[in-house]
Amino acid sequence: MPHDVDVTLPSYPTLTSLPATDHPDLVAAPVAAALAAWPGAAEVAVVDIDPDLADTAAMSEAYDIPMTAGGNCVVVSGARAGDERIAACVVRADTRADVNTLVRKLLDVRKCSFLPMDRAVEETGMEYGGITPLGLPTGWRILVHDALLDEPVVVLGSGVRRSKLLVPGRLLADLPGAEVVAGLGR
């Protein structure tokens, strides 16, 4: 979207929305690179938050944001015939990813588990508690809970704990590599 076109940034009254593409200093480096390359980024805001309130429930309470507007990103993995399969699952914060049934079947693995924290942090280049579907390693699947698409504004991690991204829910289907999955969150 050209810079001369006015775009209303997603917002919440308790937070100050800034254009995410203009503030790469507020997000992790891989997130900044992904935003710079993604056409939908013109409609994405970044907001500064207290890093001690980065966990979804604490942030929702402190900033008066409904849990249905939160998008939690968890990274899972499994293997089949020695081939590791990794996926980032983005689910509405009032649900949990259906890892043991739905995600396991989507990845076509016998067993699916959460990627160890140290490995997730190292491979994403993001802080634990700030991992987001933007800027993930090439080859990782991105599974998006269909219920998030109906939210006017979804609050996602920014790759760091001191800020969050505000994204119109409909744009989550347009994230590079995103697969919208019905019932991903239960």
Automatic annotation (TrEMBL):
<dbReference type="InterPro" id="IPR007214">
    <property type="entry name" value="YbaK/aa-tRNA-synth-assoc-dom"/>
</dbReference>
<protein>
    <recommendedName>
        <fullName>YbaK/aminoacyl-tRNA synthetase-associated domain-containing protein</fullName>
    </recommendedName>
</protein>
<dbReference type="Pfam" id="PF04073">
    <property type="entry name" value="tRNA_edit"/>
</dbReference>
<dbReference type="GO" id="GO:0002161">
    <property type="term" value="F:aminoacyl-tRNA deacylase activity"/>
</dbReference>
<feature type="domain" description="YbaK/aminoacyl-tRNA synthetase-associated">
    <location>
        <begin position="51"/>
        <end position="173"/>
    </location>
</feature>
<dbReference type="InterPro" id="IPR036754">
    <property type="entry name" value="YbaK/aa-tRNA-synt-asso_dom_sf"/>
</dbReference>
